[in-house]
Amino acid sequence: MVIKKGKSYYLKKSLLWLLGISLGLIAVLILLVIAGKTHEQVASIVEAVGSFESVARFIRWGVLGAIVMFWDQIVDYAGKAKGFSDEQILRAKTMRWRVAAFIIAFELIVVEAVPAQLLG
Asked: 111 with 64: CB under 8 angstroms?
């Protein structure tokens, strides 16, 4: 299978993005190990993360709402970038609410852990 020039660009871009996330996670882990030496620093980090958790929840739900709201534009852009046919783009546009339902179900079940909170 021949890889087109555009596909290799997106692959490189994706790998660089994953590298950046990995380096960021490593930096956070190093900071937590360093902060783990004293209890007061750990308590302050836990407090800061706790306050950021509610902000992150609103940001996450806002992004999900934006994805649902701008679904047609996202599908048009991604479909043209990937070279999809008009039928494929139209099919993807009709799947807006199905994708939204799956994303919301994933958020509630996995990320928010609603079943665990109800049962535990």
From this structure: no
Q: What is the tens place of the pLDDT at every residue in 67-120?
A: 999 999 999 999 999 999 999 999 999 999 999 999 999 988 988 888 888 887
Residues 6+ apart with CB under 8 A from 56: none
What is each CA distance from 12 to 6, 9, 34, in whole angstroms? 10, 5, 33
- Cα(112)–Cα(105) distance, integer angstroms: 10
- The answer to whether 42 and 55 have CB atoms below 8 angstroms apart is no
> Within its chain, how far is the Cα of 21 from the centroid?
12
- Are the CB atoms for 35 and 41 separated by under 8 Å? yes
- CB distance 64 to 104 below 8 Å: yes
pTM above 0.85, yes or no: no
Q: Which residues of 43-77 are buried (b: 16+ CB within 10 A; e: fewer)?
A: eeeeeeeeeeeeeeeeeeeeeeeeebeebeebbee
